[in-house]
Amino acid sequence: MKRIAVFASGEGSNFEAIAAACERGAIAAEVALVVCDRPGARVTERAAARGIACFAFAPKEYASKADYEREIVARLDAARVDLVCLAGYMRILSEVLLGAYGGRIVNIHPSLLPAFKGAHAIEEAVAYGVKVYGVTIHWVDAATALDAEVRVYSELFSDPAPDGADKDFLACMNPDSLEVLTGCKVEPRMRDIAAAYDKTEKKGKTAPSFQFMRLGYFCLDNKDCSEEHLVFNRSVTLKDSFRK
Fold first, then answer.
1. Tens of each residue's pLDDT in the chain, 244 residues
2. Residue pair 4/32 in contact by the 8 Å Cβ criterion
3. CA distances from 190 to 26, 101, 140, 187 (A)
4. What is the DSSP letter of 120?
5. Which residue of the set 109, 120, 138, 229 is catalytic?
6. Is 33 exposed, middle or buried (0-12, 13-18, 19+ CB in 10 A)?
7. Three-class SS of residue 59?
8. Within 10 A of 49 (CB to CB), how many other CB atoms are there?
9. Around Cβ 80, how many Cβ atoms within 10 Å?
10. Cα–Cα distance between 154 and 174 in angstroms, integer?
11. According to a count of CB atoms within 10 Å of the terminal CB, is the N or C end of the chain lower?
12. Using only C-alpha atoms, what is the Rg of the chain?
């Protein structure tokens, strides 16, 4: 029988459904471990109630993501896990986990992707008034991911009020307003989206946009992006450092 590890960060309703399905035989597997990045989250209580081992950790207690993911890998190995299920786990995986369990990780997202890509997909779908709801389950695998260039734009000015009478406009320019990241990994479907967009008349068209979880909103670059060279621009962060 296959052994599953469920990763979750909150209530654990997906974990509960998976565990119940395993118990009644609808899934030919058993949940061997729960991994949670928020000690005290409801999912830890659900796991305890079912007698399932749980590794709950606080990321800030580790020096780096690589450090706590190495601990997770050790726990997965010890539990002889065959499949990892990301069920509301609100963290991006690094090469440590992907390298150890690549091809054995699935993610559950509560919408029919590419629609409603963010963390509040159900609320957004209801507010929009869609007639068809659903979920997307996809593999998480660095081996099939595509390279992309990501341009991270931040504040154009280092001063929030560069137009003051006593200020030099050019001196207020932020020299670090653009950071270009190369070798970033995106899902293969992004190439299909870029190819379709590349065939349209881009002038005056809104480029397809995406939320890269917990990093912000990104859109295809309407000049440099192509099927063979994926380029994304960050348009909006999830939060900023300016005082509201």
1. 899 999 999 899 999 999 999 999 999 999 999 999 999 999 999 999 999 999 999 999 999 999 999 999 999 999 999 999 998 888 888 889 988 998 889 887 665 555 555 555 666 666 766 555 666 666 677 677 888 999 988 778 888 788 777 888 788 888 888 888 887 888 787 888 888 887 776 555 678 877 675 567 788 888 888 888 999 998 777 554 444 3
2. yes
3. 33, 23, 14, 6
4. T
5. 109
6. buried
7. helix
8. 10
9. 9
10. 9
11. C
12. 21
Q: What does the pLDDT read at residue 197?
A: 81
CA nearest neighbour of 93 among 105, 81, 83, 78: 105
Burial bucket for residue 57 (CB in 10 Å: 0-12, 13-18, 19+) = middle
pLDDT digits (tens, 9 = 90+) for 1-31: 899 999 999 899 999 999 999 999 999 999 9
Strand segments, DSSP code E, in the chain are 2-8, 29-36, 54-56, 83-86, 105-109, 136-139, 146-153, 178-186, 209-212, 216-220, 230-236
Does residue 114 have a cis peptide bond before it, meaning omega lies within 30 degrees of 0?
yes
Q: Is 120 marked active-site?
A: no
